[in-house]
TrEMBL record:
PANTHER family: POLYMERASE-RELATED, RNA-BINDING PROTEIN KHPB N-TERMINAL DOMAIN-CONTAINING PROTEIN. It comes from the Bacteria. This is DUF342 domain-containing protein. Residues 10-186 form the Flagellar Assembly Protein A N-terminal region domain.
Amino acid sequence: MEGIENYSLEVKLSADKLEAEIVLKVDEEDLDNIVLREEDVYSALQTNQVKVGILDDVVRDLCAFPRKFANARITIARGVAPVDGTDAFIEYPYLANVSNEGGPKELEDGRVDYYNITSIPNVAKGQLLARKIPATPGTPGTAVTGEPIAPKAGKEIHIKPGKNVVHNQERTLVYAAIDGQVSFTEQDKLNVFPVYDVNGDVDFGVGNIDFVGTVVIRGNVLNGFRVKASGDIRVLGSVEGAELYAGGSIEIKSGIVAQDKGMIVAGHDIRTSFIQNANVSAGNEVIVSQSIMFSNVRAGKQIICNGPKGIIIGGVLQAGEKIAARVFGNNRATPTILEVGVKPELRQELANIQKDLQNVYENLRKTDQGLGVINQILHTGKELTPEKRLMQIKLTNTRLVLEKECKQLEARKKDLENELKGETPAAVEAYHVMYPGIKMTFGKLVHFVKHEYARTRFIVLDGEISTATLI
């Protein structure tokens, strides 16, 4: 019996045109008699613009065994996927001689020492601090139609030179302009600052400190004193109810016991062993090895409390990306507030704008009342006295100013509310247990913890706060 040609070939391309599939469509009763020629397959591919990456062995098999492949999708051509470029990154050669010795050391009392002052490198004038490794453009791919597929270029990054550093003309290398210590300040600016060394406590014998550089305190900072540094602040002892302000990072080896006094503010990171009854704010991260107790803690990115104890109880903690601890709360359901998903300053700005708007609305109401009284006089046909006419001009101008301010505030309020929707990746992670009594906020989403959770990550999925088990 002669073969029949009662069939059709259907070719489909993937959305990215990196793959083509073919379907041999034939009725069941005709399967045994079908004759499929290779030139027919190549013709069907050509009709559908498939020119590159054709799998010749698949074509041969399809024609040799059409019954085997009938009415099924098979891949007939594969293009070449583009290779995305690599992101630019920054190397810090000055760190090459810093010994980590396997990471932080655990002390005899169980605490973890993150804060050995000798681990902070001194640099010399002219020393290379940073080197930018540029992004790569990637390698183009080829679609099965022969069209080039552009790769995704690597993301650029820029070294941000701060104080006492110099860079080359291409801004790819940064060198120290003075002897000192490296400090990263807000927005990851790279600086070198001179060092002011206090060989003891900050007390009445030393007084308040305001230094354009890095401050090293080899004792404690006592109640009521203030230390301000444009670079880093490093305290080998403890900090009581004092004020510490650093443009860079703050490291406190023996913890913070503030008795609800003072303020600890860093443009970059804050690292310490414990925080108790304190107000703490970092532009980047707050890293605590033991505990955070009844404190207000804010971090632009993360709050991490994951030492051997790693417990957070009470207070308000706000972080842009993540709050993580070994234990949250206690079995007495002590109220603890966790807010993640946006930078804390945005939430504070929104609260301030809402207050400002209330004042503007109230002032508009009073202005309209005054203009209403003047309009009533005009409706009676009476002329305004010079005083009333002056008042009308002032009230009209005031209203124009208030309307403009109102529009600006409402526009900013809308922008902030969009950022507070919890759409940015954010998480709360309990590595051991989370007790009831926790109020968790992701943007506008709120979750009250009413039972214990063990080893749990809280995230936002599909507009709801969801949980996942930590391995």
